[in-house]
């Protein structure tokens, strides 16, 4: 699930990425062009409501590509992405519109 909160006093959007607590993937990171596809920058954290989340703040009006990456190296897409586009690696990236 993607939750977008448009910040009033800035031209930014806080996007929270949410996975259910019962996902079968173990440790997982959010990677995308906004963090140079670096799995160490946005690791999902388990919350008291039994979900895993991480958030990023991005400029309004942007188009970003992202995916989830497990500790085992498996790539996962988000069913709630704003769209999908083919990557140069033969798979689809999720699209996030702010």
Task: Summarize the SSE layout with pairings.
Elements: E1 2-6, E2 12-20, E3 28-32, E4 45-46, E5 51-59, E6 63-70, E7 75-76, E8 83-86, E9 92-97
Antiparallel strand pairs: 1-2, 2-5, 3-6, 4-5, 6-7, 6-9, 8-9
Description:
By secondary structure, this protein is mostly beta strands. The protein has strands at residues 2-6, 12-20, 28-32, 45-46, 51-59, 63-70, 75-76, 83-86, 92-97. It has no helices and nine strands. Strands 3, 6, 7, 8 and 9 form a five-stranded antiparallel β-sheet that branches. A four-stranded antiparallel β-sheet has the order 1-2-5-4, with no helix packed on it. β1 and β2 (12-20) form a beta hairpin. The mean pLDDT is 94.
Describe this structure in a few short sentences:
With 98 residues, the protein is an all-beta fold. It has no helices and 9 strands. The strands form 2 sheets. Strands 3, 6, 7, 8 and 9 form a 5-stranded antiparallel beta sheet that branches.
